[in-house]
Amino acid sequence: MASIFPVVSLAIIVLVLMACTALFVPKGPQQVVVRTGIMLALAACYLMWMVTYMAQLHPLIAPTRSQKEA
After folding, report:
1. pTM of the prediction?
2. CB distance 49 to 8 below 8 Å
3. N or C: which end of the chain has fewer CB within 10 A?
4. Separation CA 16–CA 46 (nearest Å)
C-alpha cells in the first residue's frame, strides 16, 4: 500500500536543496536572479511530481471493466 512517506521525504530533500541554493550561489550581479530561478525550478518540479503521484494514489475516476472482459 502506498503511503505519504515519499511525498514528505522528497519535500524535505527539496527544502534542503533550496537551502543549499540560497547559501552557495556565488556572489555576483545576477545572484538573486540565479538563486530565484533555481529555487523556482525545484519547487515547480516537486509540485508536478507530487500532483502526479497523488493523482495515481487517489484517482478521480475509478477504472471500470468493459463488457468484453467479463
Report:
1. 0.79
2. no
3. N
4. 13
